[in-house]
Amino acid sequence: MKLLKIMDGIEFTYNNSFNEINDIEIKDIAYNSLKCEEGYIFVAIKGETVDGHKYAQNAYERGCRVFILQHDIILKEDAIKLFVEDSRVALSKASANYFENPSKELKVIGVTGTKGKTTITNYVSEVLNAAGFNTGVIGTNGTFYNGISEKTVNTTPESYELHRIFRTMLDSGVKCISMEVSSGGIMMDRVKDVDFDVAIFSNISPDHIGPKEHPTFEHYLDCKTKLFKLAKHGIVNADDEYSEYVIKNATCDIETFSIEKESDIMAKDIVYSKEIDSLGVSFNCGIKNGEFPCYICSPGTFSIYNALAVISVCRYLKVDQDIMINALKSAKVNGRVEVLPLLPYATVIVDYAHNGISLQSILLTLKKYNPKRLICLFGSVGGRTELRRKELGDVASKECDLAILTSDNPDFEDPMNVINDIAKSFEGSDCEYIVEPDRKKAVEMAIENAKEGDMIIFAGKGHETYQLIKGERIPFSEKEIALNAAKKVLAEKEKTLFA
Ligand SMILES: CC(=O)N[C@H]1[C@@H](OP(=O)(O)OP(=O)(O)OC[C@H]2O[C@@H](n3ccc(=O)[nH]c3=O)[C@H](O)[C@@H]2O)O[C@H](CO)[C@@H](O)[C@@H]1O[C@H](C)C(=O)N[C@@H](C)C(=O)N[C@H](CCC(=O)O)C(=O)O
Ligand SMILES: Nc1ncnc2c1ncn2[C@@H]1O[C@H](COP(=O)(O)OP(=O)(O)OP(=O)(O)O)[C@@H](O)[C@H]1O
Asked: In this protein, which residues make up the domain named Mur ligase C-terminal (predicted)?
């Protein structure tokens, strides 16, 4: 593609005459020097850790001659330097141009919020697929379309990857995209040139605040709110304390959903139910001109909110109501409140709750099903703030009957260090706790000691299939470990029965 076509809509100055850049043909764009080749543009980004300008020479040595820069640097004379105010912003527009603006040809649904992004995006995709819209998903669990999946580094990928994924999906017949839009993604201009049809706001609570993330809660909220300036239509949880702020700052039309406050789509007559392989909730969904019954096989109030967001998307896209109701009934997400049908006498759940707020929300939800004992196995990420550990510990020690403290991506930190921080919350609490830093042994112990009526939640790892230890992702499948342990326990029980 011609360089000037890639630079279309980007303000820049340059160190050569116009004629020289007019005819340049570009093979591809790279923001990492190690990916550069002859014919590429290198976009130098001032990162959180290093300044990409430092690697321009490396890109040059790899054959690259066109550079998008924020400031001048020394390079050989044949280097073409294009100066922009903000390289990330330029990368976003250049990537959209290079991939020929695929998001304009797709229906893109973006979900933002502290909790519920992965769940809602996956529900949306299941329901829209059932309704015949071929839908791709982009988020924490990776990318999925037409049975193909790929891992992603970020929940919301960098703009270049994002437009590349859109293009690949579009060319494979995908019509809709259901994607997670993290506040970090908005802050780093990864979605600036995405043409969103729908924006969803699930909820907000303090999270991702600190060095390298958001300086304040207000900054975090403002980042999320920006999505409603990029979309044509907004869907907002009216029960959230900050919903009015989001609506006030939106530039699109809005539909609201709720359980408590008056809104466009309301859930009422809520009933919680428990089956051997699922915990679910049914409710009546009230809309302007009537109501209809819904069931979702995931427990708790938060599952209703997630379902309402999906219902609102379906209304906007005019999905047949019966198809939507049926698809919602069986919608499930890998590692999100996933009930494993392992033991006939106890309920085992794998979940991704890894901070105080989400752990509290899932534990309070499970308590509504009156377990004999609520047992929570969890740890906390190494190298992060003590506050996260305290919040997790405080919640578990208040809500559980037994906690099993173990490792969760310790990385370079000693797992016992993290566990000892969490254990402080149990001093003076009625909740018993056991320490087992080896997560495999901890899972086995939980399964082996499960009793009639217990509810056991393995919190934190969710969909992850690794344990991050000293910078390396060591394969670790919590579900497989639990399954093998359960098989062993059941076989032993059968042996004693027939002995
Ligand atoms: C702290 C942070 O946000 N980092 C993100 C950022 O990397 P960075 O700015 O730190 O990059 P850097 O390492 O300083 O490098 C600067 C530049 O030099 C380049 N470079 C570097 C080395 C080299 O040899 N050659 C070279 O050209 C790099 O490619 C880069 O362009 O830009 C990268 C590309 O977009 C991201 O992958 C990376 O996300 C990291 C992995 C991360 O963990 N980010 C978190 C905070 C995040 O974004 N999380 C949200 C979810 C949470 C939320 O809700 O906000 C997410 O969407 O994932
Ligand atoms: N709408 C919701 N409100 C509160 N908690 C929720 C909601 N939906 C799911 N959860 C809980 O939070 C956990 C994370 O949910 P999910 O992965 O959907 O959120 P997310 O926004 O993608 O989170 P993260 O940024 O941590 O990846 C779930 O496993 C569940 O326990």
From this structure: 335-462
Ligand at shortest distance from the CA of 122: 2
**202 labelled binding-site residue:** no
Which ligand does the CA of 365 lie closest to? Answer: 2
CATH number for the domain that contains residue 210: 3.40.1190.10
DSSP assignment of 129-147, as one string? HHTT--EEEEETTEEEETT
- Does one domain contain both 244 and 368? no
Is 134 a known ligand-binding residue? no
Q: Are residues 157 and 93 in the same domain?
A: no
Q: How far is CA 303 from the centre of its chain?
A: 16
410: three-class secondary structure by DSSP = coil
Residue with the nearest Cα to atom 24 of ligand 2?
115
pLDDT along the chain (499 residues), means of 10: 94 78 92 96 93 96 96 91 96 98 97 94 96 96 94 94 97 97 94 97 80 78 91 97 95 97 96 78 92 92 95 96 95 89 93 92 91 97 90 97 97 96 96 97 97 96 94 94 96 82
Shared-domain flag, residues 244 and 162: yes
Tell me the ligand closest to 310's alpha carbon.
Answer: 2
Has the ipTM of the complex gone over 0.85?
Answer: yes
List pocket residues of ligand 1, CB cut-off 6 Å. 31-34, 45, 47-50, 52, 55, 153-156, 158, 182-185, 208, 212-213
Q: Which atom of ligand 2 is nearest the CA belonging to 119? A: 18
Number of domains in the chain: 3
Q: Ligand 1 centre from 188 Cα, in Å?
A: 9
Specify the ligand 1 atom closest to the Cα of 52: 18
Of 176, 192, 165, 164, the residue nearest 99 (C-alpha)? 164
CA distance 29 to 261: 48
**115 appears as a binding residue in the annotation:** yes
Domain hosting residue 65, numbered range = 3-98
The amino acid at residue 128 is L
State the virtual CA torsion across 412, 414, 420, 425 in degrees, nearest 10.
Answer: 20
